[in-house]
Amino acid sequence: MKYFELIFNISPCSQVSRDLLAALAGEAGCESFEETPEGLNAYVQQQLFNREVLDAAIADFPLEDTRINYSLREAEDKDWNEQWEQEGFEPIVIRGRRKVEGGKWKEEGGKWNEQTLIIHDGRHLPPELSSLHLPPSSFHSIEIDAHLAFGTGTHETTRMICTELLQMSLAGQRVLDCGCGTGILGICALKLGADSCVAYDIDEWSTDNTRHNAVINQVDRRMEALCGNATLLDSMSGTFHLVMANINRNILLNDMPRFVQKMQTGSTLILSGFYENDCALLQSKAQSLGLQFMHSRTDGPWACMVFRR
Predict the structure, then answer these.
(1) Percent of the chain with pLDDT over 90
(2) 3-80 placed in CATH 3.30.70
(3) The model's pTM
(4) Please, are residues 259 and 297 in contact by the beta-carbon 8 Å criterion?
(5) Which in 113, 180, 226, 281 has the greatest CB count within 10 A?
C-alpha cells in the first residue's frame, strides 16, 4: 500500500492548532499523525488523498493569524501506525451521574449514584479501584484494542459523548453508532445497559476493529458492525432510541436527514466531531428536520450537541 507523507509547518504552533489540523487533514484522507516541533507530519494512502479538500480546509483554518504550509512526498513503505500500536494509551477515567427510570437522578445514602467509565488498552491496565475511591458496582471497564489514536477515548469529542452516555438511562434501548471507528461509543452504550447496537463505518478496517473490540468486551452478541456510509440506513429495518455520530461537520449536515428517519418520537441524537463555531449551523439543520435542541458542551475548541425528536 503506497502512502504520501505530508510535512506541515504551523506558525504559531500549539497543541490546539495541531489538533485542529489533524481533524481537517483526516477529512482529506490522512489516517496517521506524528507531532513535530514545527507542526505535524501526516500519512495518507495515495489513492485516498483529496488535496482539494485539504487546501480548502487550510485556507479556511478556524484559528486566525495561523499560517500553515506543507510539502508532500512519497512515503517509505511501512506501517505508519506501528508506534501507536506498540505504545497504546494510558487509561482514561470518565465520571458522570447516572439517571434512572423517570428521568430523575438516583440518590443512595445521601450521595448521588456516580458511574464511571474506565477505558484502557491491553498494555496499560486500569488503576486500582481503591485509588479511585469507587465501589465495584459503580464502574464499567472498557478495553479498546486500537491501531489508531482516534476512537480510544483520548480525543475530546469521544470523551464528551461518553459523558453524555453516563447521564442517560439506556436500559433496553436500541442504539445506532454512525462512523463507529473502534466501536467505543456503541460498546460504552451496551456496557451502560443498552439492549443492542448497530454500528457502521466507511472503512472496512474500522468495522473489523469494532467487531474485535465487541468480542473483547463480551458484547458481540448484541452488536452488529456494517461497512458503508449512511445510505445503509435506507434499507435498515426499525428505528433507534439513540443515534450517535462523531463525524466532521459536512458529513453530519449531509447525513442528518437519514439519522432522523431512523429515530422515533422521544429518540435522542448526540453529535460531535466539530468545532464550537459550527454549532449554530448544525443546530439550524437539526431544527429544520424537526429536532429539539436539548443542550451542548465544549472541550477546548471541540463541541458536542444533544437533540431530541
Answers:
(1) 52
(2) yes
(3) 0.71
(4) no
(5) 180
Dihedral sign for Cα 100, 103, 142, 268, please: positive
Residue 272: per-residue pLDDT: 95
Tens-digit pLDDT profile for residues 201-226 = 988 888 988 999 999 999 999 999 99
Query: Cell numbers of 232, please?
Result: 445503509
Q: Centre a 10 Å sphere on the Cβ of residue 172 and count the other Cβ atoms it contains.
A: 10
Q: How many CB atoms lie within 10 A of CB 136?
A: 6
Domain boundaries defined on the chain: 3-80, 85-308
Contacts of residue 164, Cβ cutoff 8 Å, sequence gap at least 6: 270, 297, 304, 306
Q: Are strands 114-120 and 263-275 parallel, antiparallel or unpaired?
A: unpaired
Arithmetic mean of pLDDT, 182-204: 93
In this model, does residue 46 exceed pLDDT 50? yes
Contact predicate 175/164, CB 8 Å: no
Q: What is the predicted pLDDT for the residue at 216?
A: 92
For the domain bounded by 85-308, which CATH number is listed?
Answer: 3.40.50.150
